[in-house]
Design brief:
The protein is α+β, with helices and mostly antiparallel strands and 147 residues long. It is built from 4 helices and 6 strands.
């Protein structure tokens, strides 16, 4: 008898195999890239140089006057942080925003004996292009009583 040859499952689904495999590979690749970026930015944001810079900008009366309150840090910062034991260096540009506008914190810091010291800490307001030097805003220490 003349029987029509039966197609196996693989040949029946061949037209779906390549597109599904391609989309799957793209999804895995994009997920991997997002994971690496999230890990990278998370590590930079966990540094004390980043935390200290954002805290100083948030507490600055000049920054809050220009951007409004609360001041929030953006996700996509740029720059680098290099650490070697209790020493290191940081060079960062941190986007910030508030209800009134946006700006960028520029940070240069060195770490020695486990303590970060800022050599540059300034905010540039995007709309007005005004620069606010956060290191110049430091309040002097209270005078001590006695000799």
């Amino acid at each position: 008898m003349n029987q029509i040859p039966r197609k196996n499952r693989r040949s029946q689904n061949r037209k779906w195999f390549v597109p599904v495999l391609t989309v799957g590979a793209i999804v895995v690749s994009v997920g991997f890239c997002i994971g690496i970026a999230y890990l990278f930015f998370g590590l930079m944001k966990s540094s004390n140089a980043y935390k200290g810079a954002v805290a100083r900008a948030s507490e600055s009366s000049a920054v809050t006057a220009m951007l409004g309150s609360p001041v929030k840090a953006g996700f996509f910062l740029s720059g680098n942080i290099s650490l070697s034991g209790s020493s290191g260096q940081a060079d960062l540009a941190i986007p910030i925003s508030g209800p009134k506008g946006k700006g960028v914190i520029y940070v240069e810091a060195t770490k020695s004996a486990g303590k970060w010291t800022f050599t540059k800490l300034a905010v540039r307001i995007k709309d007005s292009r005004q620069h606010i030097d956060l290191l110049a805003e430091e309040e002097p220490l209270p005078a001590r009583a006695g000799p």
